[in-house]
Amino acid sequence: MVFGGDFHQTLPMVPKGTCQQVVAASLCRGNLWGHIKFLHLRQNMCLGYSEADNQHAQWLLEIGAGSTMDNNKMIQVSQSMVCANLNALINRIYPRISNPRVQDNQYFLDCIILCPKNDQVYDINEAILQQFNPNAEVHMLRSVDSVSEEDGMHYAYPTEFLQQLNTSGLPPALLCLKVSSPVILLRNLDPGEGLCNGTRVVVLNMRRKVLQCRIISKDRRFRGKVVLIPRIRLSPNAETLPVPLKRLLFPVRLAFAMTINRS
């Protein structure tokens, strides 16, 4: 068995866990740790080979080790990495986002905004959708929410409450989309056709029960393939959401921004 990853960049996910619980869930605290043979990657394949690239790679390692924090546990970044506000960030990552002529598969494949938390992803996606193709119609797709009645139990939850529930792995109760907007799949629908959890697609057409989309992927087998995404019933697990929710909607979210873990 091969384990891969870097705890400097991505820690285990413990819902609502404390710092101690997150550290305790990491591989180095497990029973297998003493039996693992280490193979270190010596070269950063995400960067080039210039001196500036090497310095940036070293700076990232120092951040992961916590050696660059001051007394207030803050990290200083260079001015070239700072955006004045959200609009400046959007214009930097998505130049000419309002012009539909410059948007193609490669445009969305090369551009993405990464966020630590889902709440920030929602806010940024909503802000970019407003700037994206201003003349395009916004389609508001509302979910059909209910609760499961297992073991003969009846759960009395008002619809307004169910519509407000939002968690990772579920589309929002009100899914706002525009034609040509990028979305990301939240479920494995047909891996053989490239429709896997995490696949990004561009919306071509919308109907009440199906989305027509085009896959944007670095994998040449699926790049540019036109696919159909149906409405399905989605249910989160009990650890993610204790309410036995069943949500009927398209298994997608906007993908102008996503969390670091999902990327």
Strand adjacency order, main sheet: 8-7-6-5-11
Which oligomeric form is depicted?
A: single chain
What is the count of helical runs?
Answer: 6
N to C succession of SSEs? HHHHEHEEHEEEEEEEEE
Main β sheet profile: 5 strands, antiparallel
- Strand count: 12
Shape: globular
Class by helix and strand content? alpha+beta
List unreliable stretches of 5+ residues.
none
Mean pLDDT: 84
The separation of the N and C termini measures 23 Å
Cα Rg: 21 Å
What fraction of the residues are assigned to beta strands by DSSP?
15-25%
Helix content range: 10-25%
Compact description:
The chain has 263 residues and is an alpha+beta fold.
Summarize this structure as a short list of keywords or feature phrases.
263 residues; alpha+beta; five-stranded antiparallel β-sheet; globular
